[in-house]
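Reading a protein record of the kind used here takes only a little practice. To see the layout at work, look at the sequence and tokens printed below.
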Amino acid sequence: QVQLVESGGGWVQPGGSLTLSCAASGLTFTSYVMKWYRQAPGKARELVASISTGGTANTVPRFFISRDTARKSAYLLMNSLKSEDTVKYYCSAGTGSLKYWGQGTQVTVST
């Protein structure tokens, strides 16, 4: 079965950096667009990064997305973190009409 497992979340001080990982299994990784979303309580889920099957990346400021075919993983590097980045982050994999989601990982930015 298809699985997306996020990891790397946790507590970090303002201005710090954090890298989230998304390990995929049960799918042909090279056929999927990988994306990262974030969702704060009471707000809609927001796309923060995407990377195409060919490696073309799009991100919001301060964030960087990458993918590793050998590891079947996608990564989100978050820099200069702020308190408003304290939300839950979700990984997704999509191709055609198929879309899969990870369970999410919490990021908390505070002193």
Notes: Residues 43 and 87 are 10 Å apart (CA to CA). The mean pLDDT is 97. The radius of gyration is 13 Å. The first strand starts at residue 3 and ends at 7.
